Amino acid sequence: MKEKREFLRYDYDKPLHYNIVRSLKDKKIPAQFGNATSKNLSASGLLFTTGAKSVPALSSYLLIDLDYRTAAICKEIEARVLMVDNKILGRVVRIDDNEDDTCGVGIAFVTKQEIQKKTVEDLIS
Question: Would you say the C-alpha torsion 112, 44, 104, 48 has a positive or negative sign?
Answer without folding.
Answer: negative
